[in-house]
Specification:
The structure holds two protein chains of two kinds.
Chain A (H helix, E strand, L loop, with lengths): L8 H36 L3 H14 L2 H14 L4 H14 L8 H6 L4 H24 L5 H28 L5 E4 L3 E4 L8 E5 L4 E8 L2 E5 L5 E5 L3 E3 L2
Antiparallel strand pairs in A: 1-4, 1-7, 2-3, 4-5, 5-6
Helix pairs in contact in A: 1-6, 2-3, 3-4, 6-7
Chain B lengths: L4 E8 L14 E15 L2 E14 L3 E5 L9 E5 L4 E5 L15 E7 L30 E6 L4 E3 L3 E11 L3 E4 L4 E3 L3 E3 L8 E7 L2 E14 L3 E16 L11 H8 L1 H6 L3 E9 L3 E6 L15 E9 L3 E3 L3 E12 L15 E3 L3 E6 L6 E12 L3 E5 L3 E6 L4 E6 L3 E6 L9 H11 L5 H7 L27 H38 L2 H13 L2 H20 L8 H8 L4 H15 L5 H20 L1
Parallel strand pairs in B: 2-11, 9-18, 20-28
Antiparallel strand pairs in B: 1-3, 1-7, 2-3, 4-5, 5-6, 8-10, 10-15, 11-16, 12-16, 13-15, 14-15, 16-17, 16-18, 19-21, 21-24, 22-24, 23-24, 25-28, 26-27
The chains are: A alpha+beta, B alpha+beta.
């Protein structure tokens, strides 16, 4: 029997269908989420500018606790904004609060708005996945598609890495809180617990545990104690 | 009658104002001493000068001694048949010294045998319990507490006066503020300098009393005690040679006088710590029964009021709801009476400000300014606010309610609605004092803060980064899950495609089927059977591992039998090629089926 050359038509159609499905799912989700975000944002208004302006208002009123809280919140969304950093430093210095050092990782890996980087990471992940599929299932027959897949994978991988690094550096913010008013850190989570030390308003602490109306906090200096939940507010 | 009193006029500063003895009919004033003292309290030096008169009444009655000097209060002296009682008028403390160099004061002390340990010192509203004054070993100083009550609740704040008395001429300096002993209580931070200075005679010896006002709170229940202590430097007498020979008591007093000792270098300074006698307290736990849900730990006596900055607004305009909690107690635990979610209103987080009525922050009022934005026109009502606290005198929880507030909200003009960012900024600005609002932007640099930012278009529905919101986290999760799914599906499709092409290749090559169909359609029976026989020959040759020429009628007859389709195909093919027999289209289609079936069987077998 003579050798018969088979065409790539069935495999190409399958790969294209898969890629289209993947793209549709990904961008469908992105569209849905973005639309939901846009709709909800009108009612809640969490933007770096709004938080920063609110922090300035609190600072001018002399409310150190809320000012620091809103500056920290603004810094979550705009970690590299020099105005936020300057005003936060000014309020801390005026209130006699200790300098918040932060680790090298936290200081150098916050690249921008985490929500923007999140979507960059999702797009990068989709590009990486699609590029890999094209390279594996289409690239052998079609040189142009091979090139397309390679470009997509190369573009997607660093986006994924950036988002992963930003996610890791943002993770400590989940436990960060600010003292709204000065209060004692107690040895036990009861009103009569012995006071270990007093935390000033605006002090940034890390919440490590909670019990009823109290939260176990740890300071930058490594001291820990139970603080009334009403006295602190989480940054995120 | 028959007794004397002592009047001491004290002036802060380097010199005593030039003045003669007061002239009061019925009283004789005889100067008996004059002194000048320099004190060091926590590093700050105070100079005081004083002059002392012996006051002798000539007849019983009530005398008002005034005109002692600028800013000095009048003193009232009662003389009855039993003795002399001195007091200041108008409730002012007679020994309160004014500003350095200009102010002054006067104190009067009766010389009656039971004139008491104290006179004209301390806060008269807080009584001094018996035994509160306990001298240090050498009588140089004392520390004592004035407390309104000795029964507290956990978390309750009570005002406390901490008094440090120092013997004039014996105590060289105070070296720090009084500190609390024990961890069962907390004491608000004391100022480096005392809030008040006064003079007091104890046992006939003059003492200067420094008073700090503060607030004490218990942090755990039980029967507890506390003491206060303060460091100071005293002058200690050195042994004088020949002192044992001074039998005359007057001479002994003279040589033992601190001024004499200090002048002649007969004393040395020593740092000591003086403690107060223990003050006992019964600290009670706050009752669990009847505890309101919104109780935040406030203990004391409070009142609640609420007011709006505007009663007529336009839809979308901000208005400030001011809630005021006034009274006395632990204001640090007074939290905002929350308005919560209100229909037709958009609420923002309130800001709090405490205004103290005294320097201990025990009395005052705390205001919470909550920006609101009306979202619907009409007469809108804000519900009443509630605030709960524990009343230590009534021993029960109390809940206060404010009156509901109404606002007339006019419909917004038919223009584009204000953007949420603008509304939020306006609401934040509305919570600022009116005077600071127009100046907020211009004084941005003056107050050390960088200016506000322009509203941005990037919003989020939460401050929590999207990485940690489950709803958004599902998006990358879906991509990650879709990748292996798509990989498996494509792999399966690929394998299925390979199998299908293998079958086509072995069972019915495309070219053969195409040629059979073309020749059948054109009625070329010779060409049809030639192609059919060649295809079958190739297939059988592959199977039998022989050359295709070896697959002929005889071989097929021998291997497959005389009745096989292949043998009949070969026979009909010879007939069609060599005889020129014509075949109908349907017959050729049947023979095509035989060829395909035969080749399939060959592949399967």
């Amino acid at each position: 029997m003579n050798a018969v050359t088979t065409t790539a038509t069935p495999r190409s159609a399958g790969a294209q269908a898969a890629l289209l499905l993947l793209a549709a799912v990904t961008y469908g989700w992105i569209g849905i989420a973005a639309a939901a975000s846009a709709n909800q944002s009108v009612a809640t208004e969490h933007s770096a500018a709004f938080l920063y302006n609110a922090a300035n208002a609190y600072a001018r009123r002399g409310n150190v606790g809320l000012a620091v809280l809103y500056y920290e919140r603004a810094r979550v969304l705009a970690p590299n904004d020099p105005d936020i950093a300057a005003n936060l430093e000014h309020v801390r210095a005026a209130a006699g609060l200790p300098i918040q050092a932060g680790s090298w990782f936290e200081n150098h890996t916050r690249l921008g708005n985490p929500n923007v980087l999140f979507w960059c990471g999702v797009a990068g992940l989709a590009l990486l996945a699609m590029g890999t599929l094209v390279l594996r299932f289409n690239g052998r027959q079609r040189r142009d598609r091979r090139r397309l897949g390679l470009v997509a994978a190369i573009a997607g991988a660093p986006l994924c890495m950036v988002a992963i690094v930003d996610c890791l550096s943002t993770m400590p913010l989940l436990h960060e809180a600010v003292m709204l008013r000065a209060g004692p850190a107690r040895v036990s989570p009861v009103p009569g617990g012995d006071a270990l030390f007093t935390l000033p308003a605006g002090q940034v602490v890390w919440v490590t545990d909670h019990y009823q109306d109290y939260k176990l906090i740890e300071t930058d200096a490594g001291r820990s104690g139970w603080v009334a939940a009403d006295d602190i507010a989480p940054v995120t | 009658m028959g007794e004397g009193a002592e009047l001491t006029i004290i002036a802060s500063g380097d010199e005593l104002p030039r003045m003669g003895p007061p002239v009061i009919p019925g009283l004789d004033f005889v100067p008996v001493g004059q002194s000048r003292r320099i004190e060091s309290v926590n590093g700050v030096t105070h100079a005081t000068s004083s002059v002392t008169y012996e006051v002798t009444p000539r007849q019983a009655g009530t005398y008002v001694i005034s005109g002692l000097g600028p800013g000095m209060p009048a003193l009232t002296l009662k003389v009855d048949a039993g003795g002399v009682n001195g007091s200041s008028s108008g409730g002012a403390n007679s020994s309160a010294a004014g500003s350095a160099g200009s102010g002054g004061g006067a104190s009067g002390a009766g010389n009656a045998p039971n004139a008491g340990n104290t006179s004209n010192a301390g806060n008269p509203s807080i009584p001094l319990p018996p035994g509160a004054t306990q001298m240090s070993a050498n009588g140089a100083a004392f520390v004592r507490l004035r407390l309104p009550t000795h029964e507290l609740y956990v978390g309750q704040s009570v005002p406390v006066d901490i008094e440090v008395g120092t013997r004039d001429g014996v105590v060289a300096s105070l070296n720090g503020t009084p500190t609390l002993n024990g961890d069962a209580f907390t004491l608000d931070k004391l100022s480096p300098q005392p809030d008040r200075r006064s003079e007091e005679s104890i046992g006939g010896k003059p003492y200067t009393v420094f008073t700090w006002h503060s607030v004490l709170a218990a942090v755990k229940p039980g029967v507890l005690s506390l003491t206060m202590q303060t460091p100071l430097t005293v002058r200690v007498q050195t042994q004088r040679p020949g002192a044992q020979f001074l039998d005359d008591s007057n001479l002994a007093d003279l040589f033992n006088d601190p001024a004499f000792q200090g002048f002649f270098g007969g004393s040395t300074e020593r740092d000591i710590t003086v403690s107060s006698p223990p003050a006992n307290f019964t600290v009670l736990e706050l009752p669990a029964e009847g505890k309101p849900k919104d109780f935040s730990g406030a203990v004391g006596k409070f009142t609640l009021s609420a007011e709006l900055s505007e009663h007529q607004v336009t839809e979308g305009d901000p208005v400030t709801l001011r809630m005021r909690v006034s009274g006395e107690g632990n204001f640090d635990r007074v939290s905002s009476p929350t308005l919560g979610s209100v229909e037709n209103w958009k609420t923002y987080q309130p800001t709090a400000k405490f205004t103290s009525a005294d320097n201990t922050e025990y009395r005052g009022d705390k205001t919470f300014d909550e920006p609101l934005v009306a979202t619907a026109p009409g007469k809108q009502t804000l519900p009443s606010l509630s605030f709960s606290y524990f009343d230590p005198d009534a021993h029960r929880y109390e809940t206060l309610h404010s009156a509901p507030l109404t606002v007339d909200v006019a419909a917004a003009p038919a223009t584009a609605p204000p953007r949420a960012e603008q509304t939020a900024s306006a609401a934040a600005a509305a919570s600022m004092p009116p005077a600071s609002m127009p100046a907020a932007a211009s004084k941005a640099h003056a107050d050390g803060l960088r200016p506000d930012h322009a509203p941005s278009n990037s919003y989020g529905n939460s401050i929590v980064p999207l990485y940690f919101q489950p709803a958004y986290l599902s998006v990358p999760t879906l991509v990650i899950l879709a990748f292996p799914g798509a990989w498996a599906w494509l792999r399966r499709r690929e394998r299925r495609g390979q199998q299908r092409s293998d079958v086509t290749r072995t069972v019915a090559p495309g070219w053969l089927v195409g040629q059979l169909e073309r020749t059948a359609a054109s009625g070329d029976a010779s060409g049809f059977f030639h192609a059919a026989r060649s295809g079958v020959q190739s297939a059988l040759a592959t199977r039998w591992q022989v050359p295709p020429e070896a697959v002929n009628l005889a071989t097929v007859n021998a291997r497959l039998g005389a009745e096989s389709d292949v043998r009949r195909l070969f026979a009909v093919a010879d007939e069609a090629i060599y005889s020129g027999r014509r075949f109908a289209r349907s017959e050729l289609e049947n023979w095509k089926g035989v060829v395909v079936r035969t080749m399939h069987e060959e592949t399967v077998s």
